Amino acid sequence: MEEKRKQKKRFGVGALIGTAAATLVVTLIVLGCAAWLVLGRDGLSLLQGITLVKTQFVGEKTEEVTDQALSGMIEGLGDRWSYYLDEEAYQAEQERRANVYVGIGVTVDYTSEAGLTIRAVVPGGSAEEAGLVEGEIITAVDGEDIAGEARYEAPDRIAGEEGSTVRLTVQGFDGNRREVELVRKSIQTDPVSYEYLENGVGYVKLSNFFAGSADRVKEAVTDLQSQGATALVFDMRDNGGGYLDELIPMLDFLLPEGPIFQTRSHTGAEKIYESDAACVDLPMAVLVNENTYSAAEIFAAELQEEGAAVVIGTPTSGKGYSQQLFPLLNGGALGISTAEYFTGNGVSLIGTGLHLDREIALSEEDQAEFTAGVLPLAEDEQFQAALELLGIAA
């Protein structure tokens, strides 16, 4: 009896092991078939290549192998709008999309040979807390002089991780220099700036279409209307675009009832976005340049298509695909074009860009001042051309 129980027990364990082995084999076969169906020969070849490099290469292995492989894969798509971000770049992109950045809270330009001239101090930043003011000059970073050509690399030296410190030498208006130690920290930025002008024009500058931009545009326009604005000028120059979820509410707020945007996904699924009847019934103009991109470009195109705005500036890029950002296990991310987009009437900007009601470029000097944020509207030829097309005296 005892011997039979032992044999039965041994048979039970052996059967379990056999069943587990068979299950594993079946699972591997299923996974292999699934991988073949999803990845195909090319995809599996990429995995094979990575495996061989990791296991067989005799030299020193670096993280750049994966970065270069992913970059090459995206480059092979032949799509100028898809991209790969390594871990550091992806983290920076997430901050940018949240309208947050890590720094000391200053805007600078390179007009002085002595160093970086402070053009603006961000409220709540370390620079404001340390008493830095517009017009002062940063002459050294961590004890190293940044005069002359060195000033062009200085912003990268001032940048750093949140919580770390940087020591700056600052030249005041009296020519005296002092040292200040600043802590780099996260700073919330406002994507919208605006002002009401004496001629009744409301000027709205939008830097991106990321988090909170739609609400800020609505607030700005509503405030300008309450002040008596009779026309609006939207400045989309150097605006690199952003989220569809910010663009659509913005267009809906400004435009009357009707289609305002269309998309076609990689599967062929089409979607049309509609505006309701409520709108802003004022003459409008949009300023653009070669860096007006993505959502900013379609914003101008849609307002123009609906007869709500004239468009002034320089030719734009003609972007027509939207990208979805996919996080990767290595900490980076792939931005892949997953949909094509069009104006409300189904017009694509690919290969054409915007139709300009007036093409006019800034001089090299004015462009430098505009980039630094110090070009007065009274001297801004593109803005003045917008007023002319709107029939408004400067």
UniProtKB/TrEMBL annotation:
Keywords: Hydrolase, Membrane, Protease, Serine protease, Transmembrane, Transmembrane helix
Alphabetized SUPFAM superfamilies for the sequence: ClpP/crotonase, PDZ domain-like
Pfam families assigned: PDZ_6, Peptidase_S41
Classification via CDD domains: cpPDZ_CPP-like, Peptidase_S41_CPP
PDZ domain segment(s): 89-154
Membrane-spanning ranges: 12-39
InterPro entries from the UniProt entry: ClpP/crotonase-like_dom_sf (IPR029045), PDZ (IPR001478), PDZ_6 (IPR041489), PDZ_sf (IPR036034), Peptidase_S41A (IPR004447), Tail-specific_protease (IPR005151)
Family label: Belongs to the peptidase S41A family.
Protein name: S41 family peptidase
Species this chain originates from: Pseudoflavonifractor gallinarum
